[in-house]
Specification:
The complex is a heterodimer of chains A (116) and B (117). Chain A is globular. By secondary structure, chain A is mostly beta strands. Chain A has no helices and eleven strands. Chain B is built from no helices and twelve strands. Helices cover 0% and strands 54% of the residues of chain B. Chain B has 117 residues and is mostly beta strands. In chain B, the strands form three sheets. In chain B, strands 2, 5, 6, 10, 11 and 12 form a six-stranded mixed sheet that branches. A four-stranded antiparallel sheet of chain B has the order 3-9-8-7, with no helix packed on it. In chain B, strands 1-4 form a two-stranded antiparallel ribbon. The chains are: A mainly beta (116), B mainly beta (117). At the A-B interface, strand 5, strand 9 and strand 10 of A face strand 5, strand 6, strand 10 and strand 11 of B.
Amino acid sequence: DAGVIQSPRHEVTEMGQEVTLRCKPISGHDYLFWYRQTMMRGLELLIYFNNNVPIDDSGMPEDRFSAKMPNASFSTLKIQPSEPRDSAVYFCASSLMGESYNSPLHFGNGTRLTVT
Amino acid sequence: AQKITQTQPGMFVQEKEAVTLDCTYDTSDPSYGLFWYKQPSSGEMIFLIYQGSYDQQNATEGRYSLNFQKARKSANLVISASQLGDSAMYFCAMSLILTGGGNKLTFGTGTQLKVEL
């Protein structure tokens, strides 16, 4: 199994530019999560999908952030326009849930975003 | 509200010794899960071990064991026979039941473990 695949691994962009982060979950997983990790705030859940449908986006910091999951094998997180305070590591994770609370999340390697 | 607390920002341990990383949690939900993840300097998040709130026995996975004390609301990670490769950030997390099934994880702030020769 290839695991969760994120791209790019690193992204450096200038303030005001649009940034798109990509994620391919593990095949067959029905939940997909986007997390952000910073030194100040730790790991924060931004949004999650169930069967490609966004369920809870209450963690998305601002309207500048948007996420989509057009099919079961692909999701994007977009920031437009980007700001320096968006600099962080963005993780995508997937899991196979059903009705159990014991399924671990499988994380991708993350995208390190730097906005200058 | 659910909360995960890791009070040790950093820990040192001698190689081959055992080490305990502390984690306490707070929830009013009787059904929950507790997880530990390892994040090495390379940045990936690696799942280590899971404990369910109704599990009678402490979870073990190789050199990792989870010391689950439900009444004290603690879920400490014990690493036996520490190795240099165990040097990493360790996160405790709790799963919360979601409407319609599934769960999401809430993470603690992490403990940085350094294994020394």
